[in-house]
Amino acid sequence: MMRKGTNAGGMRRYNERLILSAVRRMNGASKAELARMTALSPQAVVRIVDELEEEGLLFQAAKRTGGMGQPATIYRINGKRGNTVGVEVGRGDTTIVLLDFDGARKAVCRHAGSFPSIDTVLRHVASFIDEHLASNTVQNAEALMGIGIAMPWFLGEWRDELGISMDQADEWRRADVADRLQAGFAWPAFFENDGNAAALAQLLCGAGVDLQDFLAVNIGTFVGGGLVLGGRVHQGRHGNAGALASMPVFAADKSDYLIHYASLYALDQDANAGARSAWTKQCIEALAFAVTSANSLLDLEAVILDGALPPAILDDIAEGLRSHFCTDAPPDFFVPEIRKGTLGGVAGAVGAGLLPLHASFTPDLASLFKKG
């Protein structure tokens, strides 16, 4: 079907979102830098930035000197404009963060324990909001823009690995899970797969802010992932693109799934040095297989490794992958950069907290075109 042209209102909103997204990823930018990055005309950038500043979404943060001419004014996102809450519902814990409008973390809380119920998650979130939005360090509850919820789409699956009952699993298999969670909040709720949320966090405020195409690997109770293509999180038809847990791999001399080799459930917290070393070795072997498969299809810039594991082990995994590709990469293979993330165990929750901002202030190509 032929496109019938652009919608002027949609174009304006798209350009505003484009500027805000660029400022957020660049952590501050001048009008000239924004024009170069967005390919908008300098006149359009001046008009949009001035309007966003007047609305209180941007502010003049500093002057940058150097070169010829007048110093450049650097604009940044006005973090005081509002707050969001991000919640990652994991299979062994629930992590909650409070973000300001600029995506900066103002508070973090983690509830570790057994497999969660919906009621337990709602109680934790309600307690977090009561405590932190009533404090003097953030604005009041009227400034809460929304709540982001990140969780695995198949939270109740892999019961044998988790050791949970059928009843516990079934609660998260019901079609009304989102409705039940939303009913517990007085604010809009935004839902996303946990791997996609972690990838969004890496894209907007993590190790991927300068990248356009990357795979984000998040090592938690179960290994997960998210995919960024063309500077946007690629969700796939069912919102499950980059779901690495079920990726077939060949490790320990047999075919299996990545979940069994790169997940923390398989590593005892009290494991001795020898057991940790053995787990790390198998994790590297399995991830190398998964990364080779993914990159052969997608030709990525980088793979970002992050998750809820000690920094020393993350270092070992990253270095192990680099060493593997130095000696064992296929001959027709462009090796992606192996990067370590810095968000750790809060990547999914931070990504969840970014969802309300992402929904309202990120470019949407569909908004550019007239319907019909």
From TrEMBL:
Residues 18-60 form the HTH marR-type domain. Belongs to the ROK (NagC/XylR) family. It comes from the Bacteria. InterPro entries: ATPase_NBD, HTH_MarR-typ, ROK, WH-like_DNA-bd_sf, WH_DNA-bd_sf. It comes from Sphingomonas rustica. It holds the Pfam family MarR_2. This is ROK family transcriptional regulator. Transmembrane segments: none annotated.
